[in-house]
Amino acid sequence: MTIWALWVVIMYIIDYQNEFSWAGAAVLGSILATTDPVAVVALLKELGAPLHIETLIEMESLFNDGTAMVFYTIFLEIAKGNEVSAGEGVVMFIKLAIGGPLLGIAFGILAIIVSYFLKRGMTLFLNLILISCYITFFVAEKFNLGVSGILALVALGLTLNYFMKNYMTNS
After folding, report:
1. Which of 18, 140, 146, 161 is the most interior residue, by most CB within 10 Å?
2. What is the domain partition of the chain in residue ranges?
């Protein structure tokens, strides 16, 4: 919703209709729509809010950033002059927004399986997590799968956190 509000501000309130096409304004809106929760999280810490609220706000910010990147990718294709129909845009959005998290979950499960065979200490486990992050992003972005690397990393992190929290605290 923020992207569209920024698009209206760029095109009509600041009156950049001559400088931007609607797709160019949407690209700029998707860049500006990302949020930074640092101030909010600092305020929550100062007020003594529970940790789970801070975590929820940080996760919302990650998903917001990933979704803004998805919109950026779609609008950039349109701004470059590539013909993208409404149906193609919807398919592109679904592929980026759902394919990325599915890829992240798949790599998370693969990392969990590998970690059960590597019961050799925390250093090896942390290296496995680091390598999983790099491989997940590399596969998502470089093999032309058409999925979001950012959302894949968010899903990878959530998957590893959910299944490996006990392993990290008990090792």
Report:
1. 140
2. 1-84, 94-171
Residue linked to tokens 């790599």: 107
pTM: 0.73
Do residues 67 and 4 make contact, with C-beta atoms less than 8 angstroms apart?
A: no
Q: How far apart are CA 155 and CA 112, in angstroms?
A: 13
Question: Could you tell me how far CA 112 lies from the centroid of its own chain?
Answer: 21
Buried b (16+ CB within 10 A) or exposed e, 3-22: beebbeebbeeeeeeeebee
For residue 64, give both structure tokens.
């917001």
Handedness of CA 140, 141, 143, 148 (dihedral sign): positive
Residue 16 C-alpha from the chain's centroid: 29
The per-residue pLDDT for range 71-112, each reduced to its tens digit, is 888 888 888 888 888 888 888 888 888 999 999 999 999 998
